[in-house]
Amino acid sequence: MRISDIIRTKGKAVVTVPPDTDVRSLLTVLAENRIGAVVVSADGRAIEGIVSERDIVRALAARGAAVLSEPVSAIMTAEVQTCDPRQHVDELAAAMTLGRFRHMPVVTDDGGLDGIVSIGDVVKIRITELEVERDSLSSYIRTAAT
């Protein structure tokens, strides 16, 4: 299965915030959208960074509550790993596991934001694949037994 299959099912909507958004406002965006990360982008298309719940926790532990007034650009990951919609989901899962992150923006050939995939999306697809495989094997066994 390809990443484009996930995006086709999930949709291309990506929550973004401008880099000057303060961390307190970011927390509101995460909570309202029930998500774990946002792409940092001034125009909603060019990726300037990504910031996750983990980034917030680490910044709070290092600098205390004052971080809530800082811009997200102060805590975001600026070197964002992205994926191509044509990549196989197994490649994405391997990259997420190796890099120890849970969200990866999907980009078009021109580098524009085309979606975002989470480890939860990957797990959901894998479970669906396993269920289809199980059902096929069960059907095969039932047919062979008769």
UniProtKB/TrEMBL annotation:
Stored InterPro entries: CBS_dom (IPR000644), CBS_dom_sf (IPR046342), CBSX3_CBS_dom (IPR044725), Diverse_CBS-Domain (IPR051257)
Domain spans labelled CBS: 8-67, 76-132
Gene3D superfamilies registered for this protein in UniProt: CBS-domain
Keyword list, A-Z: CBS domain
Database matches in Pfam families: CBS (PF00571)
Source species, domain of life: Bacteria
PROSITE patterns: CBS
Record-given protein name: CBS domain-containing protein
Organism for this UniProt entry: Jiangella aurantiaca
Lineage summary: Bacteria, Bacillati, Actinomycetota, Actinomycetes, Jiangellales
